[in-house]
């Protein structure tokens, strides 16, 4: 979520008033804002997307709730020591959190372990261990519409009789100390991005948020006029018309068997009716096609922790496979491919398959990704129910990612096209009229230059490196992962360095290359990549032959509040994943909206950015998805490229020989070995095209006016990538609710009785 103070002031229209009031108290608002900790309760794009969605849902007047876990420790703080990443605990609640309100009156029990008893009256889950879920509510204000939604985060608490109720022969002290075991559930965020780690505590976290949330939703449904009761039994027929639940990836997939358990075991609905309601309630968003990221929980673990849920999953699977068998008799391989249970070695539950079968809608997060989901990853399911599969291209909130982080540019745009674009970003197309307006071109360039100077001062203060603010700011910030190919950027840096040293007199367009992002603590290769970048920076930044022509900086502890500083100052945005691996990306959109140009592959939302702006206004290079498929078919041989490209060979040889690690020449042998022998993401295959494309970038940067005109065309084409547009599409195509742009009157004005009606339908 990042910081809340400035975002709240902007959405409430109070920023100027607050700035003035604080100034009169002899304080500086910006200094005050820097004191607030980031709420870093997610890993990367998926978590930040949820935050943008909450802002858009409130701004569109949707009755929507964001549910998650109130981790005591969020994503780790990253320190760089001697070029290596070192993790520190993110004790973000140390000084308290003024934005949250604990709601003990809504505390709910969550059950684990135990066993199942079957009888004539149905199944009963008994002898369980109970953990309490305590909700904390954070307000989510819409933009200037007097709407405030709620983000409800659950914290784990041990019940007061924990370890004291059963046969406890009196180690009272130990029993109280053991309360920590229950409360560990919400202690810490697992720091993996795009990687599945099948740990018991993680599964507990996933079920914990799901079980508490579903009880909360059902309580709210029963309290409403829709949950009409006939002789104490609730009628759930209208449930899917009143409740929509969007599963953000498979992490909350246990919600599907949990809702079935509530309907069948507790509310005593017949299976078929319960299943119909469940399917119409849930929709599933897929966020990745990387096989190592797909959640596949061992059956033995689920059986121990959630025995009733395993039975329900087996029943769902049986009926699902019976249906497939009736359509495709004797096609056993299809049954194996489509089963929720993977046999072979240890039996596992494929959570993506569970989500597809248990939802009425499945979507990818960019056109190209949704196509890959349909035609490759889940092709059997799409063949069966093509109408279930949709696309919803991601977006970003223009409140945080333009107004808040780039007020200079936001104001400049408002002067030209008015202020309405903040709620309707498609209006940015009006900027096309000013592409040839010399004054506007100069003003856009001036705002960028001011942002760069400000960020350069920040860098010099934090990193003690002298930055040339007129150099091109070439920025690559995102989680460190092989598929995102920070290594390819690194090879380009080494290539530029070698060119400068080979011919120091030759014209070279000065660059400041900024790379930042966190590596999962257990991801060895990602940590080696960070070390390599820092080792290269050490050499480049201290070579007198290079001087101010090339500087390399690794940005420590990349997070939302740092993104808000670096993105407005960026000239060139690096979006260079291997085609077919980045589901969407959202950083790409933030850079586009803030006046950077993009160098990128035809991957994720880059494809649609090129479609909107015109491919000639992005620096697109490298293999397309078809080329990657073709190369896989014939076999990728890294050696070929190494032998054919002298500059690539030189760069790789320098890494290999210890040029960047003289004290330990073999330091990067694992990296080099990977690049030659098991590089799934084909860095060498795109190296030549990348370097050539970078030459075109430098050439354009020399012509400031032509560069800025291209920037304006990009900003004018960024309107599609508002999360407001994304959420309108979810609302209409999946949740079946209508966004309302009616501004609720402020609380100090009397309301008409007629305006008190709740709009029909809510999204949860």
The number of distinct structural domains comes to 3
Q: Shape, please?
A: globular
Strand order of the largest sheet: 21-20-19-22-23-24
**Which structural class do you get from the secondary structure elements?**
alpha/beta
CATH topology of the largest domain, which one? Rossmann fold
Q: State the oligomer.
A: single chain
**DSSP strand count:** 24
Please give the alpha-carbon distance between the first and last residues.
Answer: 18 Å
Beta-strand percent range: 5-15%
Query: For this structure, what is the CATH homologous superfamily of the largest domain?
Result: Glycogen Phosphorylase B
Residue stretches low in confidence (pLDDT < 50, at least 5 long) are 753-764
CATH class of the largest domain: Alpha Beta
CATH architecture level-2 label of the largest domain: 3-Layer(aba) Sandwich
Helix content: 40-55%
> What's the overall average pLDDT, rounded?
95
What is the helix tally?
Answer: 31
- Alpha carbon gyration radius: 27 Å
Main pleated-sheet profile: 6 strands, parallel
GO biological process, one term: glycogen catabolic process
Modified residues (N6-(pyridoxal phosphate)lysine): 590
Family: Belongs to the glycogen phosphorylase family.
Organism: Oriolus oriolus
Structural overview:
This protein has 31 helices and 24 strands. By secondary structure, it is α/β, with parallel strands linked by helices. It has three domains: 37-190, no CATH class; 197-392, Glycogen Phosphorylase B (Rossmann fold); 451-719, Rossmann fold (3-Layer(aba) Sandwich). It has a six-stranded parallel beta sheet, sandwiched between helices. Mean pLDDT is 95; it is low at 753-764. Allosteric enzyme that catalyzes the rate-limiting step in glycogen catabolism, the phosphorolytic cleavage of glycogen to produce glucose-1-phosphate, and plays a central role in maintaining cellular and organismal glucose homeostasis. Residues 738-764 are annotated as: Disordered. It is an enzyme of class 2 (transferase).
